[in-house]
Amino acid sequence: MVFQRIVIKFGTSTLTAGTPFLELPHILDLVRQIARLHADGCEVILVSSGAVATGRQALNFPELPKFIPSKQMLSAIGQPRLMGIYDQFFRIYDKTVAQVLLTRSDLIDRHRYLNARNTLEALLSLRVIPIINENDTVATDEIRFGDNDNLSALVANLIEADLLVMLTDQPGLFTNDPRRDNGARLIDEINTPEIPPEIWQAAGGTNSALGTGGMYTKLSAADLARRSGTTVVIAGGMDPDVLLRVAAGEALGTRLTALVTTLESRKRYLLAGKKSSGVLQIDDGAAQAILQGGSLLPVGVKEVKGKFERGDTVRIMTLSGKEVALGLVNYSAKDLAAFYGRQSAEIERLLGYTFGDEVIHRNNMLLL
User: Fold this and answer.
1) Which pTM value belongs to this model?
2) The domain 273-367: what is its CATH number?
3) N or C terminus of the chain: which is more exposed, having fewer CB within 10 Å?
4) Nearest-5° angle of CA 90, CA 91, CA 96?
5) What is the pLDDT of residue 142?
6) Cα(171)–Cα(88) distance, rounded to whole angstroms?
7) What's the average model confidence in pLDDT over 322-327?
């Protein structure tokens, strides 16, 4: 496969095939394709809409009073049913899935960002397929993503995905609405630093009563993802083997090429992290392990300087004063004082809790 870490986004229209009902045979076919990618060695994260539509179907499409927070209620009913369908279908292919519910604040707050990233990395390391949706039942307007298109782009940035595939009810992005203009043509690729105004205008809105995201939101999310180092493909969810073909590099739908590498994006994030005076001085063995791609463990830390909180960016230096890396630290300076220089197995006993064995995980570290 051309791509190894892939985020796939299913919109409601893809799961329902444009009807009010979940199209179970089609969902099973999409699951088959994801299972095939997974079996071929790809790491796959699924961002799935459809909870509200599933809840509405479970209640036989009720007319709800305006004073009821209907979307949250329908999502609370539909989300476990939708996950049950995914669990059942993925088990056909002997694949394990996990539910992850997020709000925008989970990815804005540095502590929650680390928690979400570490959880997803742990799931992927165990070959589990995370299925992500917005936590509609608790999300307020202030912490909502608004649609799963934006959520998928932020998740792609969170786990540094190579590819984001956004499936929709159209073959891709057109120069005009193809349902109204027979002369509209498919836009094969967007590779310019700025998306031309006429393409934004052509993206339009949503005509679906079930979904919240139209082509405009997909384009906006795709622009965010490509600026974070992820290639994006917007393609038709009904195309045969669409996921397998896109992952193999076939020209399908509309492709937005990444503007930076994921490494450059990570550098920007780390360098833009919350300023702290934090310095971790490490021994030569820990420095060698870091330079070889390892994480920083507490046993290798010899001194903790400055004040910092969990999720801050700190400097990592040798005892001779050479700066070797920057990293997002898993523990505050106060917490580290209780166990640095000790074995990871002692963290919980000394601290009373643990955020993991690493002081700084290799995925949250930038070598200098």
Assistant:
1) 0.79
2) 2.30.130.10
3) C
4) 75
5) 41
6) 29
7) 90
